[in-house]
Specification:
The chain has a single domain, classed as Up-down Bundle (Growth Hormone, Chain: A), CATH 1.20.1250. Helices cover 81% and strands 0% of the residues. It has 14 helices and no strands. Helix 2 packs antiparallel against helix 3 and helix 10 crosses helix 12. The protein is globular and about 55 Å long.
Length: 420
């Protein structure tokens, strides 16, 4: 591992990209917890929480595919830089409103909608940037280091956010005690400003973009290319189903669990931090184990999804934060074990001239569909108990993994060929 990482750490492009990405990812964790918690405290309604998540996700789900086409046309760095400046301004306004006690639901949702629109372009730009910044033979190691750092921020960020909420207030004592939430948005605002400066120092590798074509045609060509690849198409359809079943439910269920049974926003930070710690351990284990699989990558992925589904079932019955943290650590380890290989497999399978559009579809699957499902999850959560919500989601994931193993070519998915 050291032999692989040394050339990367001497690469100024990678160092600037890695440091800025880590800073921005750390700031994102503060908003990821503070924003749904703010909506929940302003409304006290799980349906409103689910609808707000859907409102932020629907525009992103629609525009992220167009964002990928623009990334392929104008280069990832240019698009990513613009979105960082936009997010800096939006988060500064949100922090000021919350700190001054003037944050009302319509204004909060409008600003959150702006952040969502920006992410429709920053997500495909960010996920496409790495192959433009490092040599192909270093891509696997670079993905491992970048994703490991991101998981480290998923551990540190929620824990720091939970501490901030506990010390400065999370709104549990009334709307005048939300200074912790305001500071969380301020931290994310600063992280975007700093990461914009680091990105300015990255010099992308030479690349000849494809001839310009209408955006709609470019999006259609990208979707058609994925659809023609039978294995890629199958994987994306399966991941879309998993994102709806699990991602949508978790965005509603975890805040409700923390609010109703545990210790407020700080408990939510602990649960998410535990997942980040587990994912970091899983990535480290993946690096140590190399390409050891339960058969191959596809069979390993489906086996892990089935186990994760079963682990979600008891999550709705916990009565203490440590119980949820233990389950989330195990889930994180299992997920982190396969993430690097899956991400690199896509990047190496798809030509660079279509990478922005393909990664935008990949992110659409995970970050676009889940908020749509969150609206339904909010409605379900208002009518069923938490154990039923978690249990149903877990059994659906386990069932989907079993069906994919029995009836799809996903079990034939293999790791990307080794690069020289």
């Amino acid at each position: 591992m050291n032999r692989l990482s040394q050339p990367l750490l001497r690469d100024r492009n990678f160092v600037w990209l890695m440091s800025g990405g880590a800073i921005s990812a750390l700031g994102d964790q503060f908003t990821l917890i503070a924003l749904p918690w703010l909506v929940l405290k302003l409304t006290g309604d799980p349906v409103a929480l689910g609808m707000s998540v859907a409102l932020m996700g629907i525009p992103r789900a629609i525009l992220i595919l167009f964002g990928g086409a623009l990334v392929d046309r104008h280069a990832p760095k240019r698009i990513l830089m613009l979105t960082k400046h936009v997010n800096t301004v939006l988060l500064a306004v949100l922090a000021i409103l919350v700190y001054s006690g003037r944050a009302h639901l319509p204004v909060v949702l409008a600003l959150a909608l702006g952040l969502s629109l920006a992410s429709a372009f920053s997500i495909p730009a960010g996920t496409s940037m790495l192959p433009h910044a490092v040599a192909p033979q270093h891509l696997q190691a670079a993905n491992g280091m970048m994703m490991g750092l991101r998981q480290l921020t998923m551990l540190a960020g929620p824990l720091l956010a939970g501490l901030l909420f506990a010390l400065a207030g999370d709104g549990s004592d009334g709307p005048l005690h939300m200074h912790g939430l305001a500071l969380a948005f301020g931290v994310d605002c600063l992280s975007f400003a700093v990461s914009a400066w680091t990105l300015a120092n990255v010099a992308p590798r030479p690349f000849a973009p494809p001839p310009p074509q209408p955006v709609l045609r470019a999006v259609a060509d990208g979707l058609a290319a994925v659809w023609r690849d039978a294995l890629l198409r199958t994987c994306f359809l399966y991941w879309g189903l998993c994102a709806c079943v699990i991602g949508g439910v978790m965005q509603v269920a975890l805040p409700l669990l923390a609010s109703s049974r545990l210790h407020g926003a700080s408990a939510l930070g602990l649960l998410m931090g535990a997942h980040g710690a587990g994912a970091l351990l899983g990535m480290a284990a993946s690096g140590i184990a190399g390409r050891r699989r339960a058969g191959n990558l596809g069979m390993t992925l489906l086996l892990i999804d089935g186990i994760v589904g079963l682990l979600l079932v008891p999550l709705g019955t916990i009565t203490a934060s440590w119980q949820g943290m233990l389950i989330n650590v195990v889930i994180g380890v299992l997920g982190g074990f396969v993430q690097v290989a899956v991400f690199t497999w896509i990047q190496q399978r798809v030509p660079r001239e279509r990478l922005g559009r393909t990664m935008s579809l990949f992110m659409f699957v995970f970050m676009g569909l889940a908020p749509l499902a969150a609206a339904l999850a909010g409605w379900i959560a208002s009518r069923v108990a938490l154990p039923a919500l978690f249990g149903g989601a877990g059994l659906c994931l386990a069932g989907a993994a079993l069906l994919a193993w029995l009836f799809t070519p996903m079990r034939a998915l293999r790791d990307a060929p080794a690069t020289v």
